[in-house]
Structure formats: structure tokens, C-alpha cells
Amino acid sequence: MTYLAKPGLHHPTLSCNAIGFTRRDYEGKISTLCAGCGHDSISAAIIQACWELDIQPHRIAKLSGIGCSSKTPDYFLGQSHGFNTVHGRMPSVLTGANLANRSLTYLGVSGDGDSASIGIGQFVHAIRRGVDMTYIVENNGVYGLTKGQFSATADQGSVSKRGVANADSPLDLVTMALQLGASYVGRGFSGDKQQLVPLIKGALSHRGAAFLDVISPCVAFNNHAGSTKSYDYVREHNEAVNRLDVMPSRTAIELVHDAGTTIDVAQHDGRTLRLHKLDAGYDPRDRIAALNLIHQGNARGEVVTGLLFVDPDADDLHGHIGTVGTPLNALGSADLVPGAGVLEKINAALR
To answer: Which Pfam families match (predicted)?
Structure first.
């Protein structure tokens, strides 16, 4: 199969942000994912967020692991630094890069298989250490590259495309991130652009571990009746903080949803998704209240989305371990090897 390359020329009337970049300057290659994949909507939201924040593309480092989600950094921020790691190891590589060069903005993109299965230990330690990063999990509940097996985030009782019910309890990465001390936690829906773009902008602007779990339906293997990660189910059971802009398989459904209300959205296959949006009075600064809200939503069969928690005074890994303000990769030999006298003072302080 042949894919056309994007044209390199920009129309002179394209709008520029405050630093002179057009939105196209934040794009990447043409996506090879399935038409209607929620991951492409997340890529578009990342592009929009970076353009609106006036971030210089070369000041961003994007990292990923293995999976459909981990292919997506090739489709956005084509002028940024990028590194595709091995399966589940993205958080460790990101942590090392962040310690070496704190001057970049770090964006980790992963999937529910990459982070909740083989990479669960990596996820846990990167979050608890407070690495200054935006960590996005594109969550579809299946292993798309290996034809739709349940992932660790698939809800118990959900049914696969072949009609098999999942008997295992799911991992909820949002509640884990809250309990591990993440200082910015949100959940979004790939089709809700009006909610997702501000969530990403807030995460990129936050100092500390910012985690976003984005429900991103797999149109090939997990967008059918019985799936709790489908466009239909999320629309029917979503309790959202922000407005909705839903992207169903192959066709976009757009709507306006007022805060504090519940709305039923008809799906292309005849099913209905119920969305409930939190009112404007919700306070995202209470970690315990956020955990309670998620569990209450789960008990009602609702998917709670929006900015669930933020610590406006959070610190990061550099602050925790007291690194110098200069990026480590910019330090000279005199700083890195100060001599035996300095070493003796350090050893004496530890005696």
C-alpha cells in the first residue's frame, strides 16, 4: 500500500501562533492507523494544544513504547525530538532523558498494553518519583496490533469482538496515578476535543507528573456491543467535566453538552451512550474526593472524565533529589569532577 507524503508548502493565509508557527508545523507524517481510530483524534488534540501554547517544536521530546498508541508520535510534532523505546520501557528512558536535560518539555505517549501490562512497574515508579512529564495513555482495552485480545484495562464482563467475556478485574490507571502521588490527573475521551485539548494544555504546562488516561476506541477490535471502551458505551456512560465533541467510527459526531446535565447520544449502530458532565463547582484540588468520585462513577456505570485532580504547588523529581538548575548534559568536567576535597567533605557529612 502506498501513502502520499504531505506537501511541504504552506498556504500564505494559514494562521500563525505568537511565535510564528502554523498548526501544520506541529503535524507529523500521514497516519497509517485504521480510519476512525481514536488515537488519531488524540494526535490532533496534541497538535492543537502545542500550537495554542506557542511551544517551539524543537523544545519538546516525545517518547513512546510499543503498540498502536506508540506509533502515533510519528503523526505529530514532526520537528520535535523523538525516541521509540522497547515495549513498556518508555518511562525509564524518559526519566533518564529528563534528568540529563531538564530544559525540554517531555511528552510520553503509551497504551494500555504498554503501560498496564509489561510496563506497569515502569509506570508506577515514574509516577511516584514525580518526573516532570506529560504521560498520556491511549486506552482502548485491547491489544490492537495482535488482533484484539483483552488488555489489563478491559472491564470485567466486557465482551470481545468474538463474543468472549473478560473474567479478570481491570486496572484503573487513573486511581493508581492518584494513589501514587501524580500531581495532575485527568481522564478524557478521544472524541471530546473541547475537553481533551485543555486537558493536554494543562498537563504540558504543569510542573511534575501529569497523567492523562484517554479512552480511545479501537474501531477494528473493540467498538462493538458489549465493549466498555467503544464509542457507544463511553457516550452513554460518560460523566464529563467539559464539553463533548465525539468522534465515532469513520464519522465525527459533534454536540454541545452543558455542565451539570446528562445527555443521550445516538450511535451509528443504534446504541445510545449516556454522558453526564460535572457541574462547574467541582474542585479538582482534593485527591481523596477525586478517588471517591471515580469509584462512585464506576458504581453507577459512568465514565468520569475531565480534570480530576491538580496540585498547583507540586514539585518534580529534580526538586526531590536537589539537582542543579543547569541541565546535566551542559555541565563541564570541573562541575562533574570537582576533586578529592569535595568528595571527602561529602563522605564526612555522611559519617
So the answer is: TPP_enzyme_C (PF02775)
How many Cβ atoms from other residues are within 10 Å of residue 191's Cβ? 28
95: cell is 526519566
What is the rounded CA–CA span in Å between residue 147 and residue 5?
28
Residue with cell 462547574: 280
90 within 8 A of 71, measured Cβ to Cβ: no
pTM of this prediction exceeds 0.85: no
147-to-75, 104, 213 alpha-carbon distances in Å: 22, 36, 22
Dihedral, CA atoms, 328, 315, 196, 114, nearest 10 degrees? 60
Q: Quick one: pLDDT at residue 243?
A: 43
**CATH code for position 177:** 3.40.50.970
pLDDT tens digits for 193-208?
999 999 999 999 999 9
Q: How many domains is the chain built from?
A: 1
Q: In this structure, which long-range contacts are made by residues 169-172, counting pairs with CB atoms below 8 Å and at least 24 apart in sequence?
A: 171/116, 171/120, 172/294, 172/298
Asked if residue 350 belongs to a domain, the reply is no
What was the pLDDT predicted at 141?
86
Which residues does 38 contact at the CB level (< 8 Å), separation at least 6? 138, 140, 190, 191, 214, 215, 216, 217, 218, 219, 231, 247
For residue 74, pLDDT over 60 is answered with yes
